[in-house]
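Appendix B. Extra example for self-study. Work through it before the problem class; the solution is given directly after the inputs so you can check yourself.
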Amino acid sequence: MSRFAMVIDTRRCVGCQDCVVACKTENGVPEGYCRDWITEEAHGAFPTVQLEIRSERCNHCDHPPCVSCCPTGASHIHERGGVVLVTHDKCIGCKACLAACPYDARFIHPDGYADKCTFCIHRVEQGLNPACVSVCPTHCMHFGDIDDPHSEVSLLLNSRAHHALLPDAGTKPCIFYLT
Amino acid sequence: MTALALLPELTVSRHNPLVDPHLHIWEWQIPVYLFFGGLVAGLMIIAGVRLIALRPQQREALVCCTIGPLIGLTFLSVGMFTLFLDLSHKLYVWRLYTTFQITSPMSWGSWILLLVYPALGANALAHLPEAIPALAKRFPVLVTISDFILARVQWVVGIGVANVMVGIALGIYTGILLGALGARPLWNSAVLGPLFLFSGLSTATAVLHGILVITTPDDERPAFADFLLSALTQLTQARPLDKNIGPVLARADNSFLTIELALLGLFLLGHLTSTGIHQAAAGLLLTGSYAAVFWVFVIGMGIVLPLVLQSLELQDRIRHAIAPVILVVFGGIALRFILVYAGQESHWFQALN
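Solution. Structure tokens for the complete assembly:
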């Protein structure tokens, strides 16, 4: 079994939003919407201030509350890599998954269904990286199988300090930020 | 100064109402649906109990087990229609009934809603000819159906029990629907299930009480203008509560309101003794942006005031009026609106602060 994950080096990310534009272009995300976005978080007091820039998206959680609350089974875990996906013609647009996601990663597409990051599964199944990873000019984003101990993402997580978003929410997110 | 300087500052590149769910998940349709769901649940439970323990000579019992279910069917349809209005992919609504998702409260609810129609319908049919004789004259088949049901005690008990069971499931479901969404800390409480159930029971009792008052024959009933006036001048003239117009319902309503108040206390206590994000969520109702409407509309006007007025009515210390009934219904609506809207403002990202 493979488990896809993304590892993002916050020391390299400059918040250029190339990942956002690549995603919108690759996936035809309508104007005004986005499946990924940039968050800047500043900590501390002057002069010891720290800034973390993160490229955020659906965390493709191991325990996705958006899947367990879906009344039609439209939100599901893909057989390959545990990617959380939405079957558009099963989605009724009840918005329970939007309310259930602590990361606010989902939105309602203008066509009515719930939409979000797919880890570009259509590219991954062809052996390519997700669009956001492939265009990153600072190479701060890494994608791979964390169940494979020799994969790039596993090696990075084993060698660098990292954190995930809202671990206390109990969703077991699969996007990790190197610090 | 230091504490302020240490606060993290978040800048997110996507703040716009098209994407951010907390700006637009659920609007008026959902609280209206939850209100009607709770109301119908209450009507079902009362109808089921009254069907099993019916004393046909009592008008109150006939209204509870016949008129209540008929109105409940209408309310349920209105509620389901508002739920339908909320869907953003409306043409695919039939997908709800092509599967059963055991972990999804909404899936449970959609199937429970289907059980409500036959259960309420059967309850109404049992005594329909007695409750609405004119309708029975026009459609004699109603008498045949009623006789068929009433001739079989097991059927009567079965229909009553089914209404109580489905009613409890429906009432609790309307709360669990929100309570199961852990991403919104204010909703994340198992107490919401029984809270919405007892709120639904108190609202249903109030609605039945109102129907009894309105359908009382003219010689027993004060003029409509007097109703309105009495809402304002309850304290001016003592008049005993009409034995046919619901001392039972007023007592029951007081019990439900008391339990609802206790459950609201437990709900807030659970949050205040939990994590920081749950305390912050409770703060929205206690001292935050929803505090004024919560204390005035839900606690004050929706629970405490009708509780006091109905207690005084039962002691024959003030005149009987429709005001508490209106207040209880208003409180039920306000509770759902405030919880749905405040819940969407409560968020896990408050943990970052």
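Self-check: The CA atoms of residues 32 and 309 of chain B lie 26 Å apart. If your reasoning did not lead you there, revisit section 3.
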